[in-house]
ATP-dependent 6-phosphofructokinase
Amino acid sequence: MRIGVLCSGGDSPGMNAAIRGATLRGVDVHGFEMVGFVDGWRGFHEGETVELDRPAVRGLSGQGGVFIGTSRVPPFDGGPGEADLTDFRARFADYGLDAFMLIGGNGTQRVSSILHDSGIPVVGLPKTIDNDLDGTDYTFGFDTAVSIATEAIDRLRTTGDSHRRCMVLEVMGRDAGWIALHAGMAGGAQAILVPEFPESIDQVCDWVTSVRDRGRSSLVVVAEGFALAGNGSQVTRDGRDGFGRLRLGGVAESLAPVIEERTGIETRATVLGHVQRGGAPTAFDRVLATRTGIAGADAALHEDWGTMAALRGDRIEMIPFADAVGRLKTVPDDRYAEVRLNFG
């Protein structure tokens, strides 16, 4: 069996470990041939590949990024209808592939579902630092992003305390605030602002002043997709991303001067940005990614197509794509409510 391995969307710590796990299981144990497509669908369209075997993946578990590259290049021209897959099928056959192993988040696994429904064998490996892919408890990359954000909170708190400032930290999270929620809880933030639950500027300032009145300095964590109640619009930058969406970013820089003006407390903003994606994955993400890759290779052996490797409790289970795509996993009411009581 010859399997094409491809990464799509943003990079995520643990992707190398997932490829290593899948390759060692697939090639050395099951006797597969495995080929990686360089820079995602660009490599598939342009014929740039790398053979995957034990020497190719040696020492990858602890490395960040993804050594075969990833991109937001689309898999199809136009829509995903049967007519649009004619050239795709021909290229699939030219590579001598029997199946795909696609590594990515919600968009990638939606493509996996389309290919499976069109008769092309696929298994999926879920990665996204946002942890917003449904059907799995955690995606690899999330724990690393949270750890990096938590370290940033710890560092900002010491300088904020030194100057009696309010510090506002912006983390990633377009539609789901999991990074902000977990990092904010771990770092003891006095307010955590997530896209799922708008808060008014009056409420945010009340939390900040209540901390000041206790002789402390506030630290506010805000997800990039947060919008103030009554405003309804996210803060955006110029241009669009690879999926055609408006680029988010700058909500912390928008909030900080308003907080300072209303409270009289000197306030500074920090945008963590792509630092959250970089560097070595945590031990948790290395283990989760490796187990996910192994499960994907085993699923291919058993021709368990149309499934994604999901973490359920402490087990990796192959679940149908229908259980993973079509809706985002967002922060539920009860999770936000339990931490909101501690704000201020």
In short: The mean pLDDT is 92. Residues 14 and 261 are 42 Å apart (CA to CA).
